[in-house]
Structures are given as C-alpha cells and as structure tokens.
Amino acid sequence: MKNSLITLVFFFMSSYALLAQGKDAFPVQTTIKNGTIEGDYNTKTGIQTYFGVPFAKPPVGDLRWKAPQPLENWSGVKVTKEFGPRPMQKLIWGDMNSRSNGVSEDCLYLNIWTPTTRTSKDLPVLVYFFGGGFVAGDGAEPRYDGESMAKKGVVVVTVNYRLNIFGFLAHPELSAEAPYQASGNYALLDQAMALKWVNENIAAFGGDPKKVTIAGESAGSIAVSYQMASPLSRNLIAGAIGESGSGVSALAPTTLAEAEKIGVEFLQKFGVKSIAEMRKMPARDIYEMYNESGRFGFPVVLDGHVLPKSLVEIFNAREQAQVPLLLGWNTQENPATAFMQGLPNTKENFITKVKQAYPNDFEEVLKLYPHETEEQVAYSAMDLAGDRFISYSTWKWFDLHRSNSDQAVYRYLYAKLRPPLVDQTLETGLAGGTSKRANNTPPRPKDLGAPHAAEIEYAMGNLDRIKEFAWTEDDYKTSETMLEFFTNFVKTGNPNGEGLPQWPKALPKDDNPPVMVINTESKTVKATNDARYRFHDRFFKNNK
Length: 544
Description:
- With 544 residues, the protein is of the alpha/beta class.
- It has 17 helices and 17 strands.
- Strands 1, 2, 3, 4, 5, 6, 7, 8, 9, 12, 13, 16 and 17 form a 13-stranded mixed sheet that branches. The chain has a two-stranded parallel sheet with strand order 10-11.
C-alpha cells in the first residue's frame, strides 16, 4: 500500500511538472564546449529545442562595437527554454511577429531544433539568418521556426545578430583599437562567430559540422552571400541558400574611409566627443539618437577582414566557398507603385518614369519591359521596381557562382499568390508584411505577384504559425513542395527527390538557364527575362 501511494504521488508530481511546462515535454540536458544547457524534449513531435543559447559574450559596455568575444565557461546547468532578447530595433515591418524575450543589446543568442536521438548522429544542419534590412528582425519570428524541417531530419539553428547602429557603426577610433585596423560589420562578425560556435558544438545536438548549410531571406540572404565570400566563414559551410538578395548591389559595401566618415558625422550631429563617451551612454540614448537621425542603418564595410574585396572580385577570383548554391527571388519583390510613384499605369507615364531613371538607356529599357497596355505597364513597373530593388542583385550572385565554381547552382522563381487576409482591415505592406489600416483608407493595389518575403513561411513549413492569412489547400501543397526542395538541398546539396518536379542545375554558359517556378503546380521553365538582368549588370557597372 505504501509503495502504491508513493507511485501515485510520483505520478501526479510528474504530470504536474509536464503541465507546468505548458507543453507535452520533459527537460533534456546537453553538454557543449562552455558548459551544460537544458532544453525541452517534446513528446508529441519528437523534437528537442534549446532556445536562447548564448554563443558570445554580451556586446555591452566596453564590448559595444567590438567583434564578438568567446564565452566563458559556466558551472551548473544553464536553462535555455525561452527565446533570448531580440537586437535593439524598431519593428518597422508589420510581418515581424517576434516571440523574443524583449529587446536588448545583450542579444547574441541562437535557437536550436533537433530530431536527434540517443543513437543518431551526423545529421545535416541548417543555419538561418533572419531578414529585415540589417535594421530589424530576429531569429524568434514564427516564420523561421525550425520544427517542420527538424521533423524531416535536419538540425535547424536560427541566429540573432546586432543591427543598425549597434551592428554597423564604423569610426576611426574603432578602427584604431581593432587588431585588424577596421570597424563596422559587427553583425557579420556575429554571424561568423555563430558559425564557429556551430562548428564546435553542433555534434552535441546530433548535427554534423561538415554538413552545415547557411540560408537567409532579404538581408539574411545578403548575409549568406557575404559569409560565402568571407575568409572567416567560407570554410565552415557545405551549402548556401539565398532568398531574394545579395551584397552585389543591395546593401552593397562601402569603403572603410566612407563608412568612418558617416560615423564621425553621426557623433558630431549629436555632440558626442568620442567613442569612449558613446560607450558609456545607456542603450536607450543611442537607440533614440539613431531613430532621430532618420537613417536606414549604416553601411556594410570593405574592411579587409570580414570582406577583403567586393563580392564580384571575390567570386571572379574563385575565392568564395566552393559549395552548392540554391537561390531565387519572388515575382513581386517591389510593387508597381514603387516605380510609378503615384502615377496611373499609362504608357505615357511609364515612358516618362523610365526616361527619368535611365536618361541614356531608356530606349533599351523600354524594349525590355512591355508597356503598350495598362496591364502591361502594371506588370512591367512591378518587374522593374523589383529588378532595381533586389532581383538583379540575386541574379548577379547566381551568375557569378555558376561562372566561377564547379558546384551545382539551382535557381527558382517564387510565384504563389497569397490568399485573402483573415482580417480585412489588414493590408499588405511593401516588405510583404501586414499592418492595420484606418476604416476609410483605401487598400493598397492588389498584389500582381508574390511579394517580397512571402515565401519564408512556405519554405520553412510554417503556414500554421502565421495567423493573418486564410491558408488554403493550394498553399499547403506549395509549402510542402518548397519545404521538400529546401530540406533535400540541406541534406544532399541537391533539391531533387521522389515525388517532386525535376529541378535541373544551371550550367555556366547557358543564356537561358532552367528556373524552378514554385507555385501550386511547380515546374521547371527556361529563363525568359535574363536580358533584363544583363542590362542591369551593364548599367550597375557603368554607374557605380
């Protein structure tokens, strides 16, 4: 009777412990380089999670605007069950629904989803860098959640990194104190440190450090292109995925001298006499100064350390990571209104705007973008706005790697239109996000294509976590296809697999390379618009 009572008490205590965690999970511990951490093992999904895992010392106080520093060892068990704070920022886009634990300079944390068991090892790894223009975002956003891919046998890691003034401020005083005699690029250094952490620790989570694929969207995609090129990271990765963006023209680097000049002018604007004085300020003051300045971030820097040369120079010298690359962009990377700037979609107005943008090349542009009818103008204005914003930049990365690597390169065009919003008082924003609009405010023009950032939740299998849209069977079908493509690529460097449409790799000399159009019925087509990107390539070279 006594033993039965003890057993009953133990059962109720165990049940209460599970309920107290708020999910069907029990604690699991893993020992990494610096100590032991505790996460959760979800008995429903079979996935273990470790959230808010530190990968560097907090970049605060004297470490503000310094390269991330290695962690010190700890004793005991560090509980890692909640997302860490997101980097200092304003959530300037409506689709950034963070699950992070507040906002802080102390933001260098990563999150892990792993399907490992006590007998499994050497699993493929995906490290995902969030987007947001290097000014906003974090790895705890629901659309980046790693559970769906982990269920398919991949260890998924999302990484936080410093943003805006905290992540990119350059200044002569900062350059003088750095061992590599340069400054800025702290965000990219954070990412490189996270990749080093993964290399040293991911085996403890069942991952293979030799099978690490890096991925990202928008600024995250641009970061992937930089990490492919950087001597700090290029030997730590086995593959790369880019979703809309590279550092060729979008958020392209500037010289150290120019970046330092921008930093000097910023300090002078606010009457700050030195970096030492700036480091003593509360994070709030710097945050408010940055917001008052009206700046959209600070530039990436050709610092001779993270980036010894431009991406074009590095790739043309075949000095980038020689790994398989999968990349692409969406059909509506920027709405037509971004180019037409409020003018009606008439032939005359389109010609006027093209002449303004390309005074010496307007005839060639007009040949490349049809504009006889109002519908043609709407689509051509959308295409031209997207090409100028980020599509050309991604194409150039594609072209550079297939021309300067023996590794496979796969290209997609994401075309799935979004379903209606659940709440019709929401509107779609320029970055593919949503925000409330006033009752009497007319909605934005209907999407002509798939907006910038719309593919993320499809690619990561996270439609259920995004509540704003009325997802349909077609959306889930598209998501399963894209998730399978991405998962296969992470596992093998090749997106192809059973039950999927065939996706050929692009060959170096092919003027019309294969493109996987991802939609409800995904299929491979031959590229039809690459003449547009070849024009923008010439234009970019002539107008740098």
